[in-house]
């Protein structure tokens, strides 16, 4: 066990619950740390059910293309905990991370605190120590009582689409969940809002008005869409004709549009050339990304393997649409390799794939105590009318997928599973892996690259 893993294991034992939405514990610890949240660079705070990480990836790409230095905080990680914390453009070093974790552990002095709270406190402490131009801060869950919601005066806030997820913590309706997400809105901070369900938008709008914030809303104040293989962005300041985003799928045009709206609405020092450069270079692993390497070699030559961390019904609807666009570009039977955490329903996640899948191969996510068993997912899939089989390992599932010649093979269902896949595939150390263009990072072969381009062209219809 590495020193980092040993520290994180100790921190996990400081509170009996992995998740316990509250702010008193984190505020107490931050006070003992001399309130690092008050010594941060300008903060852009991002909430929503899906799309947070991708939108932050676009913002980071835009700002860095304009020569700015950027801190980033996201979760969860895929391969190494270091991925969660980026200091002025670079992933935190293991040495610096360990020092910060041990410092907050000493300051906390054994008081009850959750894993996410104490690790977020370490991140905020690090962000306060290193100079940068901006901090892009991702909400962990919800917003109102999320640990990250300790920044009193953000530069701006973003709320991505709100849908059903984490209902046992956030509420069982979109309106209730939207109320939690709207908790990040702050008086004096402009807000950019992605397209929402009507009931969610009504709640967000009411929360904004109470704070004298006029939300800048997708479909009303700005829009972004695919046209002739390009991304077209439009608001009252004018129209931008831009290259398509490097990330694949129609939903990525939406995420990129929200990021561009934030650039313009928050007054960030980013010009059109920097936006175009960022769209071409943006990187966000395990979001409909092609795979090559040892795992790819377990499939036949004509097979086409992809990895995506989609893990809820809203995310899989977007994923299903992207795969449909791929199928128009090049028809192929679809095999889904699925592993899930037990906080989600297999039936809900599979519904968008009805009639589109040749076969489902299920996995128990290795090392995850709260994962659905492969047998349970397979049984639920068969009840829903799918041909499904449980497999013992990622490699066994890929070998079974090879029985469908020329298949498009998608591994999905959980970011935790995505991390296991990257690890099993011998993914390079994240420091180098993250700095590469997607085509280098995944060893993308030429035909996959061509197909990705075809998909982007077809997204606009």
UniProtKB/TrEMBL annotation:
Which parts of the sequence belong to the Mur ligase central domain?
A: 46-262
Provide the reaction this enzyme catalyses: 10-formyltetrahydrofolyl-(gamma-L-Glu)(n) + L-glutamate + ATP = 10-formyltetrahydrofolyl-(gamma-L-Glu)(n+1) + ADP + phosphate + H(+); (6S)-5,6,7,8-tetrahydrofolyl-(gamma-L-Glu)(n) + L-glutamate + ATP = (6S)-5,6,7,8-tetrahydrofolyl-(gamma-L-Glu)(n+1) + ADP + phosphate + H(+); (6R)-5,10-methylenetetrahydrofolyl-(gamma-L-Glu)(n) + L-glutamate + ATP = (6R)-5,10-methylenetetrahydrofolyl-(gamma-L-Glu)(n+1) + ADP + phosphate + H(+); 7,8-dihydropteroate + L-glutamate + ATP = 7,8-dihydrofolate + ADP + phosphate + H(+)
Q: Which UniProt keywords apply?
A: ATP-binding, Folate biosynthesis, Ligase, Magnesium, Metal-binding, Nucleotide-binding
A Pfam family name for this chain? Mur_ligase_M
Pathway given for this chain reads:
Cofactor biosynthesis; tetrahydrofolate biosynthesis; 7,8-dihydrofolate from 2-amino-4-hydroxy-6-hydroxymethyl-7,8-dihydropteridine diphosphate and 4-aminobenzoate: step 2/2; Cofactor biosynthesis; tetrahydrofolylpolyglutamate biosynthesis
Q: What class of enzyme is it?
A: ligase
Residues of the Mur ligase C-terminal domain? 307-414
Gene3D superfamilies referenced in this protein's UniProt entry, alphabetically: Mur ligase, C-terminal domain, Mur-like, catalytic domain
Question: Which Enzyme Commission numbers does its entry carry?
Answer: 6.3.2.12, 6.3.2.17
Query: What is the role of this chain?
Result: Functions in two distinct reactions of the de novo folate biosynthetic pathway. Catalyzes the addition of a glutamate residue to dihydropteroate (7,8-dihydropteroate or H2Pte) to form dihydrofolate (7,8-dihydrofolate monoglutamate or H2Pte-Glu). Also catalyzes successive additions of L-glutamate to tetrahydrofolate or 10-formyltetrahydrofolate or 5,10-methylenetetrahydrofolate, leading to folylpolyglutamate derivatives.
User: What's the protein here called?
Assistant: Dihydrofolate synthase/folylpolyglutamate synthase
Q: Which organism is it from?
A: Devosia algicola
